[in-house]
Iron-sulfur cluster carrier protein
Amino acid sequence: MSDKDEFEIVNEKIRARMDKIGRKIMIMSGKGGVGKTTVTVNLANELSAMGCKVGVLDTDLHGPNVAKMFGIEGASLMSNDGVTFLPVEVNENLKVISLSFALEDQDAPVIWRGSMKMGAIRQFLSDVEWGDLDYLLIDTPPGTGDEQLTVCQAIPELTGTIIVTTPQDVAVLDARKSVNFSRRMGVAIIGVIENMSGLVCPECKTEIPVFGKGGGKRMCEDMHVPFLGSVPMEIDLRIAEDKGVDFLTSQGSHPSAEALKKIANEINYGTACSTSRDTSFLGTPFCKPSACSSCTADCPSRKK
């Protein structure tokens, strides 16, 4: 059997899996450390709390932190038949798959070339029994390399990308590359999230612009892409992630939690994304999910 034959077999398996999933969303960042996984985990928690069936695929193979933030660190990959893997369940509406579940030593580095990373991601897409989902959120490492390219090529009906940045110029500079990557790949841009957008002092309640403020929003205006919202920095959010607890259901008033809930609501019900690969509308009023209701295109990732 030729390599091409094997490649096509895997593609068919991916198609069969992805056809059971409504919206496939890739979360990107141009620069590391901007809180992309934070956004992925919290959006997944909120969407599942809304009653949506959600899967999270961690494709950050060199630094898989999704499991820790969900509080399922130490879980193992399971299989009923020795061929198909079962995702780890966080709750009845939320499933997760990560390379960390296959690592015996969590401190061991994953030293893989591009071809091995591409193979692992395609295996996660083809051999994991995701079942019927409303959303598959795909967490990716920083940049626009092997992982992002593999996702786009393996899922040609990808709903779109969410790009995470912080306000400072160096992060926005790299986020612009993620915007242009999405456009070059013909993937709709659901929107940009400005994370770590100011810190409210817990003592005096004064807002401190640690990384500046508004850089992500200004980039959206300049590049004509939707802006999903700003998420302020909070110490309690960091503590919740380290403990692996759901921050959005924690007690007390948390501006960052409210911001993340609003963004999740916008993604699920609102007017900030598209599900089409036709990029001719980018930057126009039609680049939003409400357009789906009047869209006549037969888009396989279109929200029902």
